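Question (not urgent): is this output format expected?
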Amino acid sequence: MSAAVLKPWWALVLLMLVLGSAFFIIASTHASRGFYAQLQDLEARRWYLEEEYSRLLLEQSTLASHYRIESEAGETLGLVAPGHEQTRLVAP
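Got this back:
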């Protein structure tokens, strides 16, 4: 008689284990989808930052060009290159 009593008990334990594993799969799938959505957001942010960095590099190279610096020095500060009469050669 004890074998007949143990069968429903084992069935109940197995049912609980199956249900537990099913809930674990549901929870891990939900977490995986959340992580994938976060990954997509981070990749979009990375793309935006790379695009902005490229624009800033282009702006920096434009502002740092010799022609721009020379024209800004002449227009804003009134600087001009010295002529031959204003230069002196110093002997060592």
